[in-house]
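DM from R.C. (forwarded with permission)

"hey, sorry to bug you on a friday — could you get me a structure for this? deadline for the figure draft is monday and I only need the backbone to look sensible"
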Amino acid sequence: MEESESQETSQEVAADEVFIAPSIYEKQILAGASYTHQTPIPDTLKNDLSVECVLGVDEAGRGPVLGPMVYGLFYLPMSQHKTLLAETHHFDDSKVLKPQVRSDLMQAICTSGTDLYQSCGWATRVMSARDISAGMLKPVGVYNLNAQAMDATIQLIKGVFALGANIREIYIDTIGKADVYQKKLEKIFPTTMITVAEKADSLYPCVSAASVCAKVTRDAALEVSHQAYSYSGARAYEPKAAADIWGSGYPSSAKTMNWMKEHMDPLFGWGNECRMSWGPAKDMLEVKGNGIKVEWPDANDDEQARRMTDFYITTTAIDVDKEAEDELTTWYGKPVAESVF
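My reply, with the result:
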């Protein structure tokens, strides 16, 4: 199990009116599916693919027990890296920015005609709680969170190269040991200068912008996930309901833990919004005795290796008195001999 060590802050909660970006695919979110959203190459680069670009990658939602983990990618011409992002729009680590500020920044990125829209491209990989847990709970060949995160990062970067963008520098907020992560990426993208560093979202504006894309997408995804619990008769869906009722989704949130206790099914636990592999979820279901214990058959147990024909009664094995035969015995047909099969 892997959980965030940082405590929840007020900045981790969504804005009162979070912007619903194009990266929100409602059907996939409600189905618990992971997916990727990628914008077309921006106009300023489309006209001249030789323009050298800088690219940043960061994530949001690594530690929560509720909701997806989202990886964000952001790229733009190197000549505009600091002037456009840091000086003009004041991008910073999404955890530092106020919720409404990052929501407004995301809206500017997605609005046609703005300088951010014309010069920048971005992408997100929404990794559903269901898929994260399925990988981590595999009985053989566990797909841990670091491996899932690294694969998402590589997939996003490859997608931008496929568009034809001339990416010269890549900056990534590290997971695990930075030097190990960086060497792996350098083998995959040998012609690009790659920097993997701690707190990259505070050091490099393109990573800050990627952080905003990831965070606002996660916030909106939580709002969509809450729709499954927001309809009751004639009651309409309220956009603010998710943050007000289940908080940020982190185990450190009292709202989150209270919501989980109140909405736990003793057999199935929770819906697609919950990471079943996280400690708080497992504790509620298994340790504290609130869940129903299920004992699965052991595939290696010879006693379980039964044939279908073992459940049939053969006429050669039992001498049935036809006249005294119970009516229910032949209600759905006559028993047949094993040789028939």
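R.C.: lifesaver. Strands lie at 35-38, 52-60, 69-77, 121-127, 166-173, 193-197.
me: no worries. The chain has a mean pLDDT of 84.
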